[in-house]
Design a protein that fits this description.
The longest helix has 8 residues. Helices cover 12% and strands 26% of the residues. By secondary structure, the chain is an alpha+beta fold. Strands 1, 2, 3, 4, 5, 6, 7 and 8 form an 8-stranded antiparallel sheet that branches.
Length: 213
């Protein structure tokens, strides 16, 4: 049985490090969301690292824009983006201020508030599917662009925070190519997950979209 985590959010210094150091250490941490209907909490089981202007797979690869401004710091804040015209995805900003990098929160196990998550993820056949994938995670926790820029280190009573949890044994941590990333960033082994955890999303290689003729 996983114990209820420390209620003090992770310190900013935890995120003020290279993104590839932070990403695997997020596995097992608790993502806490306070909604108007009550709390929802999950244990992170899968994440992906993005190294900003050095990374062709990152939103910040071509520099700062109004959309990706939060990625440039300070660290420990939420970067929420809207994709495919229908889904939100939640990231955590890392590294020194002024240099964009972030970690996509891809999947987790809902441990508190599963009943609230089910209301938003009514198509999930099992609770292990409630936050199995980044868009599902954001939907289950009622995360949208209104939470972009939220300080995840500020207070456990904030609408969104990251808390210590129960880390996996080092032998359980796996890494490999990121899901759905093409081009120069396709083969970076910057996806990290807990081996054999049923909430981890399946790997899918990038498939180029065809232009309409």
């Amino acid at each position: 049985m996983i114990e209820r985590p420390d209620r003090t959010p992770l310190p900013r210094g935890f995120f003020d490090r290279p993104v590839l150091d932070v990403a695997p250490e997020l596995l097992g941490c608790t993502l806490a969301r306070l909604t108007g209907d009550g709390p929802i909490e999950l244990r992170l089981t899968e994440v992906e690292a993005y190294a900003g202007e050095l990374d062709p797979g990152s939103h910040a690869y071509r520099g700062r824009t109004p959309r990706n401004d939060v990625m440039f710091g300070p660290p420990g804040h939420a970067y929420v983006y809207f994709t495919y015209g229908m889904w939100h995805c939640l990231n955590v900003v890392c590294g020194p201020e002024g240099r964009a990098s972030g970690i996509l929160l891809r999947a987790g196990e809902i441990q508190i508030g599963a009943d609230l998550a089910r209301k938003r993820r009514f198509s999930a056949r099992h609770d292990r599917e409630l936050a199995k994938g980044p868009a599902r995670l954001a939907t289950a926790l009622d995360v949208d662009r209104a939470l972009n820029g939220t300080d995840l280190c500020a207070d456990a009573t904030a609408p969104l925070s990251l808390l210590p949890g129960t880390p996996p044994h080092p032998d359980q941590v796996r890494n490999g190519p990121r899901t759905g990333v093409g081009g120069g960033g396709a083969h970076q082994p910057w996806r990290f997950w807990i081996d054999s955890d049923p909430t981890v999303s399946p790997y899918r290689a990038h498939v180029p979209r065809r232009r309409a003729t």
